[in-house]
Every structure is written in structure tokens, then in C-alpha cells.
Amino acid sequence: MTRQTRARRGLAALLATIAAVGMAAAAAVPAGATPTPTATASPAASATPPTPAAAATTAAAPDAWAAKPYMGWSSYSMQVYSGNPKWITADQLLAQSDAMHAKLQKAGYDYINVDSGWTDHVDGNGRPAPSAELYPQGLQKVIDHVHANGQKFGLYLIPGISPAVYEKAYPIANAPGCTTHDIVKQPLQQADYWKIGYRIDFGNPCAQKYVDSVVDQLAAWGVNFLKFDSVTPGSGVSDLSLDARDDVAAWSKALKSKGIWFELSWALDIDYADTWKQYANGWRVEWDVECYCAGVALTQWDNIARLFPRAADWWRHAGPGGWNDFDSLDVGNGTMDGLTRDERRTATTLWAISAAPMYVGNDLTKLDAYGIDLLTNREVVAVNQAGTPAQPVSTATDKQVWYAPNADGSFTVALFNLGRTDADVTAKWSDIGLKGAASVRDLWAGTDLGTFASSFTGSTIPIHGVRLLKVTPQKGTTVSLNDDAQRVQYEGAWTRNDGREVAATTQPLQVAVGDSSAGAVPAPPASGRIVAVNDDDPGIAYSGSWGQSGSRGLGDYKDDVHYAEADGASFQYTFTGTGIDYVTELDTSQGDVDVYLDGVFQKTVSTGRDAGQPRQSQQVAWSATGLPDGSHTLRVVKKSGGFMLLDKLDVTLSSLLDPDTAVFDKAKPADVSVTLRRDGGELAGISRDGADLTEGTDYTVSGTTATIRSAYLAGLPDGTASLGFRFRGDAHDDVHATTADGATVSLSFRGTGVAWIGATAPDQGTAAVYVDGKLVRTVDTHSDARRTGRTLFSVDGLRDGDHRITVTKVSGDVLRTDLFRYTVKKK
Fold first, then answer.
1. At a CB cut-off of 8 Å and minimum separation 6, what does 6 contact?
2. Which of 361, 371, 436, 680 has the fewest CB atoms within 10 Å, counting from its CB?
3. How far apart are the C-alpha atoms of 414 and 458, rounded to whole Å?
4. Predicted confidence (pLDDT) per residue in 285-299, tens digit
5. What is the average pLDDT across 210-225?
């Protein structure tokens, strides 16, 4: 058992001892204090865009109190750091409130949130009541003090109801005839990760009345925020053996009626993101940030670094009304945080650009000057409060560029050096959607750096350091916004991808080259459509605590594996292809894993062996074949056993070449022709070892036939040559699509021209394009083959100023949209 596991379990046990009965017990459990981390009128007759069809669905208006990420403080990091779950006394909370008022409140920090342990008994109606030991003059005095400081107050609960409250059968307030015994699901079922309470039966109307009664009490006290912990799927359990979605819906209904912020925890399952967005104002996306090293540090760099792949997964799910929660931002005191100065700034930057709630975990009475500067930098806080989560150009590197297109037309750009040496990090304007010059401002330094034609390089960024920039396109620059950019607005029933996207991909043609006259008769080569992805590939996102073991001498692919010991640890890999194999070892030290594909649970797979049986390396534990050609995501979660291992993933690429192998005999030279299974216009080029072949000289394309000239092949050395056929795809390999006539997509922009770029396809029809509310063209998006990146509409010469383009589906089975591109005023 690791030190971290012992610390978490010890703290959980300690907190459990102070619990009395009922939901009070739930409130005494540490947030995330678990064992280490073990998805039809034609508008042509109208001068304005029509109202979406009645059958279309439109997102509900976001909760007004969650229009921006909240800022404040949470007690849990200090409860862990101090080793004392009772740290949250009245005196401590009053001191934190006063310190926030003095040091941070002018910058926007105004939530004082109390985590687990605030209650140790229930009232006569089975509702949690404050601890008299911690709050001898009553919790109300603390809440009133917080409010008097101009701040909001938060508390903590978990799903379910305790055995004691079930047995006592308390009468439920304002619900005649209902008791706490009535509302427990039969037969009795576990409600939370820690097995504290019983699951509530929300098919019984009394259950909602009980939740309402608790929320009525919280509102009467003046509570403004509720953290709801151990929410499943997530919280280490995603196989639906625990499922708190009914609890979440019930609490959401009650809390929304009172305007109380509803935050879910911990490590929520992204496959249910739409549910969390429907009901909550925030959701934790990863395990606890604390290092569980009491008295030593609040957190550690590894716990910050593991958030980058989670941010890359979750960014598009956040926005006004609901936000991705990264846990406490523990950067306020260098002697306490467990991070270097550069790491403290990097963490603050990641929270800011991700629009994650910025709540401090430090003792606010002991902030140092550098911590206060980090937390109150006006321009950095403004990035967070703008509420536009950033996305990465790529996570397959330690030199990462993240960017967010802002409502004012500027871009927030962060240059992260996650590597082990100081390094230059370059942002290319083309990677973030710009073509042309842009001015750059350093937000941490508050300094304008000048105008740059096509890129900006942050020079010698320190290890685990960052540069944070505001990039503003200059006159004549074009700005491209992908279909999932927050600035792109949808009305009606739209879905992202859903099998309607086409990913850019490279298909290998394996050519055996030889000379039979010299005795080297070439034999047909093996297909190159199966690509091995080693466990150290940067595209694999590991969640939880993982290690890597190399030079093992056990027959593993490339002689290395990644391994995890804690249940709940997982890995995730997004690939483009038609199949995938999960390759691992089978051994007595291993157990069961849960496999998910595209957010759907597939099965529980055993990777263990009976005692006495030998280890087996490079074994396919699970595979999928015959998938639709496109983007897919595999996720595997450790369920049991001492270890879970990943050796490699074998990805089967789609068959875009027929055949995908060939033989070239220099003694009998002949052109090699293959049939393309995409439209010939989708072939972007052919290359070998990174060097492009020349179209018209080395190869030709006619319709769906590509021909490699014999003169080129004759110059290749004997052996197997791999020629990469590069096919275009939708921008970012994704699209939004609708089947509802009348559904619209629109963009507001400031500029002099705009274009709409998307796919044409056999299942598409017509769309109406409006500029500034006036119909300007009806566009035919039908074609005999699926083609990507087509300019479906463009207009230039608009007056410089604010404009809005709206595209409305008129006919056809489907309408896809990919990019909007507009031009900043020309010089």
C-alpha cells in the first residue's frame, strides 16, 4: 500500500468516526478522499432567418448565477494538509473570510466553501445539522459573517441516506405521510463510493420531497453553494454498479429553485457529460489535486500535469451555466504548495485559460506576496472570467500551445513547457486559425510585444513554465473558427460528429521492390493498415497514478509497459480507423478491467491468470473490428487485481486503397495503380519517408484511380517501400450536423468578409445563408461523393463593422457545418 493510499484511507476513517447519523455521515466524508485512483418552410421566401422547427431542441438558458466560473476558497486542501478533518472550526472560517475580504475579494474571489465534516447529527426531520463542537455559537453566525463580508457560503453533501436515518423513519418536513424509511430503494443498495448510505428510490414522490426539505433548510441558512461528492458514473466507478444520476437530477431541481450553485465531484465520467451539463453548474474532471502528504505540501507537480489531457478532453463541454472543475488552486504560498514558482504560475494559467473555477486551497491568512500576485493579476483573472475554455493544438508533445478564440475577436494563447529542460515554444498562427499578422501582448508581464507575421516563439521557457499571450489579428488577417468554437452558435437539433465526420488520415501502400533478373524476386508485402501505438505514445491519456517500466526482458512490445495499481485508474486513446486491439500481459498479479468504446460500456475483461500459471506477454485482451471509418475513443478502467498494464494498442486503419499492397519488379517495370475509396479530390498528396512525391511526374490521379509511375518506382532500393497516401478530412476531424429543417448555425463577427466552409455529400441538400438578417443566397450542398473543406458561401466587401452570418437547413437528409472564416478589415 502506498503512502498516499494509506493517507487517504486513514483520513476517510478518521472523518467517518465524527459522523453521527443520516446525511450527517455523508457530510463527514472527505471530498474525493478515496484510495489513490486505483461521449419546414423554405427560408427562401423570408427576409429574416426563420424560427427553428418546433421539433428541434434548443438548449435551456444557463443559470444566471453560473454565467461565469466562480472564484473563492475551499477548505478541503487545508483539512488534508493539517491532518485534522475538524480544522473547519468557526474561528478558522471567520479568519478565512476576513483574509479573503482583505487580500483577494477585489479581484473577484467571493465564495467560502466548507467541505466534509461540517455536520455530525441530523434534526428531527432527518436533515443534516451543523456540529455544535465546531460551531458552538451556531453555524448561522459564521454564514452571517461571510455574507457581511460580501461573500457567498457553501457546504458539502453526498448521495443517499444513512442506515441510521433509514431505521429512524424521521418524518419528512412539509411532506405529510412521508418518512425517511419510505424513500430507500429496496432491496437495499449502496449509494456512494464509501458505502456510507443507502440508495434513494426517486420513483417515490416522497424522495424528492426529502431533498426539497434539505435544500429548503440550506436556503434558510443562506447557503449559496453545494458540493455534491461521490457522484457516479465517475468517482472511481463507471460500470453503473453505482449510479447517482437520479440523485443529481433531484438535487438539481431543488437547488435551481433556490438559485444555489450545484457542483459535482469527483472525476466525473465524461461519457455522461451531457447529463452533468443539464443538471449542474460545475463538475470535477479528475482526481483530487492534493498530494496527501500532511504537513509537507498541499499538492505536487504530477497532480497538475495530469490535468492537461483532462482539459483537452473536456474543454468543449464548459460554458455559461456549467464549468470544468480542476479542484483547488493551491498556489498561494511557496512554503506550502509543493510547487516551484514556475509551476505555480503554470497551474494558475491552466485554470485561467480553461475557465475552471478558481478557488484557492491555501490558508488565506498565510498567502505570500507572489501567491497574491498570481491570484489577483487583473488580465489573467479576466481570461478566466471571459469563460472561453482553451483547447490544445496538440497534446502529443511536451511543448504545448493552447488557444481560445475570444468574443472580442482576440485569441488567448498559452505556451506551456511541460518538458524536463528549458525550451522554446512556438505558436504558429495557422495552427490556431489565423492567416496574416497579429499583435501579441504578454498578460503576466502586462507588456505589448509587437506585431508578428505568422508565429510567435516564447524563448527559453523554464521547465514546467509558461507564457500567456493575448493575440489580436491585424487588418487583412483571416480568422477561421471551427464548428465547436464557443463563438459559433446553434439553434435547433444539432449533434457533433455522430459518424457524419471524415477524419484526415494517411493510408500506407506497401510496395515490395526487387529485380528478378538479379535473383531478387519481390514477394507480396504485408498490409500496412495495422499500426502499433506503444504505451509511451503521447496521444494516450492516463488518468490516476501510473508508472512506466522499461528494459523488463519479458517479451513486451518495445520492452516496456505502463502500469497502475489503484482501482479506478484508466487510460484513454482516440484513434481514426476501423478497429483496435488492447494488448497487455496476462499474469496472476492482474485482474479485471472495464472496457468502453465511444462512451459505451463494452465488457469486463480478465487480464489475470490462475496461481502457478506463467506470465504471457503481448496478449490481446480485447479488440474491436469492423467499426465505421472515423474517430473513435477507447477507454479502459482498472477494476480489480494488483496491477493493470498497457503494452500497446494496435489500430486498424480504414481500407482506403484497393489493393493496399503491390509488387514492383525492376526487370519488368510497370506502373502501379490503386483504386481510391474516397473521392480523388480528397487525396492531398503521396509521400515516402517524409518527402512528397511530385504529382504529374511521380504519380497521377484520375477519378478514383491513383497511378505510381514506374520511373519513380525503379529508383527505389530493393525492399519494401511504404508510400503514404494523405487524405483530407474535415477541419479538426469533426463537424456539427442536423437533420432538422429550420435548424440554424450562426456567427457574429467584426470584419469585411465571411465564408462558410463545410462538406458536400450525397445525403445533403440546400441551405439558406443570411447576412445581417437578410437572405443572400440559397446554397446547394449536394454532391455525388462526400467531399471535405468546400467553400459553400463567401462574400467580400462588407462595411467594416459588426455582422452576423446565419445558415439554415432547408432540404436534404443532413446538413453539415465545419468552419466559418472571416476577414478583419483590410488595410
1. none
2. 680
3. 10
4. 999 999 999 999 999
5. 98
Q: Are 351 and 336 in contact (CB under 8 A)?
A: no
Whole-Å CA distances, 373 to 320, 329, 357, 370, 380: 27, 14, 18, 5, 10
Residues facing 168 on adjacent strands: none
pLDDT digits (tens, 9 = 90+) for 740-787: 999 999 999 999 999 999 999 999 999 999 999 999 999 999 999 999
Cβ(791)–Cβ(817) below 8 Å? no
Q: Kindly write down the DSSP assignment for every residue of 98-126, as one continuous string.
A: HHHHHHTGGGT--EEE--TTSEEEE-TTS
Please tell me whether residues 270 and 155 are part of one structural domain: yes
DSSP label of 298 = S
Residue 787's H or E segment, with its range, is strand 787-795
Q: Where are the alpha helices (DSSP H) in 715-816?
A: none
The rounded distance, in Å, linking the Cα atoms of 121 and 142 is 18
Rounded Cα gap, residues 27 and 11, in angstroms: 14
- Of 681, 705, 685, the residue nearest 695 (C-alpha): 685
Overall pTM surpassing 0.90 (yes/no): no
Confidence of residue 59 (pLDDT cuts 50, 70, 90): low
**Considering the chain, what percentage of its residues have pLDDT values greater than 70?**
93
Which residues lie below 8 Å from residue 547, measured CB to CB, with a gap of 6+?
562, 563, 564
Residue 529 confidence (pLDDT) = 87
pLDDT at 47 over 70: no
Closest to 182 (Cα-Cα) out of 173, 190, 172:
172
Residue 779 sits in a domain of what CATH number?
A: 2.60.120.260
The phi-psi region of residue 138 (left if phi > 0; otherwise alpha if psi is between -120 and 50; otherwise beta) is left
User: In angstroms, how far apart are the furthest CA atoms of the chain?
Assistant: 99
Q: Please report how many Cα atoms fall inside a 13 Å half-sphere around the Cα of residue 816, on the Cβ side.
A: 30
566's grid cell:
489503484
Single out the residue of 93, 46, 60, 102 nearest to residue 74, CA to CA.
93
Give Rg (Cα) of the chain.
Answer: 29
Q: How many Å apart are CA 575 and CA 634, to the nearest integer?
A: 8
DSSP letter (8 states) at residue 379: H
d(CA 414, CA 410): 13
Of 698, 728, 758, the residue that ends a domain is 728
**415 lies in the same domain as 563:** no
CA 768-774-779 angle, 5° bins:
20
Q: How confident is the model at residue 527 (pLDDT cuts 50, 70, 90)?
A: confident
The position carrying cell 492516463 is 542
Q: Say whether both 630 and 766 belong to one domain.
A: no
**548 and 677, same domain (yes or no):** no
Contact 362, 78 (CB under 8 A): yes
Tell the burial category of 827 from Cβ atoms under 10 Å away from its Cβ (0-12, 13-18, 19+).
Answer: exposed
Whether the CB-CB separation of 339 and 361 falls below 8 Å is answered with: no
- Residue closest to 360 by CA, chosen among 12, 148, 97, 135: 97
Distance CA 189, CA 202 (A): 13
Q: 110-119, 257-266, 534-543: which range is least confident on average?
A: 534-543
- DSSP for 488-506, please give it: SEEESS-EE-TT-----EE
Host domain of residue 775: 482-502+732-823
Residue 575 lies in a domain: yes
Strand arrangement, sheet containing 411-417: 391-392, 399-405, 411-417, 465-473, 438-442, 447-452
Q: Please answer whether residues 624 and 579 qualify as being in contact, where contact means their C-beta atoms are separated by less than 8 angstroms.
A: yes
**Cα atoms in the 13 Å half-sphere on the side-chain side of 686:** 24
User: Does 661 share its domain with 633?
Assistant: no
The residue count of the chain comes to 827
Residue type, 404: A
* Number of domains the chain contains: 5
Q: Dig out the grid coordinates for 428 from the structure.
A: 504558429
How many whole angstroms from its chain centre is CA 448?
32
Same domain, 20 and 153: yes
